[in-house]
Amino acid sequence: MEHGGSRVLTYPAPVTSYSLRNASPAKSRADAVVVGVVTGSSGPAIAPGGQDVAKAYGRKLAPLLSALGVTGKPGETVKVPTSGTIGSPMLVLVGLGKDPDHLAVRRAAGNAARSVTNAASVAIALPADTPELVRAATEGYALGSYSFTTYKASGPSTSPGEVVVLSSVARKKDAIAAFEEGKVIAGAVARTRDFVNTPPNDLRPPGFADAIAEIVKERGRGGKVTIQVLDETQLAELGCGGLLGVGSASDAPPRLVTLTYTPKGAKRHLALVGKGITFDSGGLSIKPAASMHEMKSDMAGAAAVVSATFAIADLGLPVQVTTYAALAENMLGGSAMRPGDVITIHGGTTVEVLNTDAEGRLVLADALVMATEQKPDAILDVATLTGAMVVALGDKISGVMGGDDVVADVLSASATAGEDFWPMPIPEQMSERIHTTKIADLSQHDWIRWGGGLFAAAFLREFTAGLPWAHLDIAGPSFNSGGPAGHVSSGGTGVAVSTLVEFARAFADDK
Ligand code: BES
Ligand code: MN
Ligand code: ZN
């Protein structure tokens, strides 16, 4: 731990091995078999993928489902001992609703994973006869079985050693690719969750940068990602007044981490920028006490862009990626940034600071300008930026703002990824509001609460040099304060990782 001993930031490697097979779920010898239930017009029915199990039960199935009160509605999970009816001793029935698509399968697989608590091996027989469904079943199960136990006295692991995803197309090339993709995405999302869940005393800017460097090192040359870390001295030389101002009251100084992935033959270059406030106390404009602890998650954007970059490299997507993680800790103290201060962003733009709790836009400004200097074909920034976006869209939907084309591409990527994003405008009036300062180039804040998320987007746009750009405000969905649901765990969710990877895939293809 930073205060006291020193805890090295390493996370246990997943113990579960996944395979994709074309086999009958009724003949499986796994300790548990997962089968879907749909809500049909004449009552619940076993979903595609599980027909052999339905056949094995024959006319006993309908009365069994009825006695158990199984309806097939989403979120339902029921465990049934099979007493020899099929090869496996335990049947796990998960609700899929009506006409299940990949979203329903991903969620149901996640629910199944949480209900299986004591099985060494599991067979999944959910609808999986297309690559999209294979990916959803694999990803959903892997994400549903996520847990963060670093800080708990260790008990026996409850994750199965072996998971077999059953699919009639298991030997087809595109299904195998989708299966691999599901595993890579789930791994990247889990890594993001680990970073977000790590308490803020153990994840401060220098330690976070070191942990990212450690991943790059472990991957080695074959990992295809290189790293550069700028420390506070180098940031001062570069005039990064946003990162330095925000981090000025912390004894753990800011860092700017740059990752590069440059595959042969890439025609396009994507820049990713992430907000990495390892703890947001609000600074002198201090936050109320009640939910301040959740501000350990204010680095979820940085964690998402970093993990997505590794996933893009693992999948070998033919697109050049440069990723910037802007890391600082927003604290109070004698050297803290004050409301009224004027700071200078990298590149020379001056900003009048009016609320030290609107710190994200300041660290992002430095990183965005750094990104524009590489002249990428598009920039995406990801940030837990505003409470206003949570008020507007709730805590399950992220906002996306920016150029129309890039916003449309983010929305289409998010639909493939199975994440909820909604487009928000940057009204002309916001361009006026960011210019009301009398003494600097830009106002950081104006105390009119309304449309605070849109003000922030207008502010960020000033630092994008007119390049194609979109801003993803994940303040709500990045942290789940409630219980787990579907494939989404409690705590850090890893939102945006999957959307970023899908965006990069489409961007690579689109000449
Ligand atoms: N990190 C917060 C935004 C946030 C709020 C993230 C809720 C996750 C959940 C951000 O730095 C912040 O404090 N924003 C202020 C901006 C305001 C002072 C203009 C906010 O939204 O209240
Ligand atoms: Mn803040
Ligand atoms: Zn913040």
For the largest beta-sheet, the strand count, sense and barrel status come to: 8 strands, mixed
Radius of gyration: 24 Å
Point out poorly predicted stretches: 1-6
Give the beta-strand count: 20
Overall geometry? elongated
Enumerate the distinct ligands.
Answer: ligand BES, manganese (II) ion, zinc ion
Average pLDDT taken over every residue: 96
Task: Kindly report how far apart the N and C termini lie.
Answer: 48 Å
For the largest sheet, list the strands in their spatial order.
8-9-11-10-14-18-15-16
Helix fraction, binned, reads 25-40%
| Computed structural class | alpha/beta
Q: Please indicate the percent range of residues in DSSP E strands (runs of 2 or more).
A: 15-25%
Total helical elements: 15
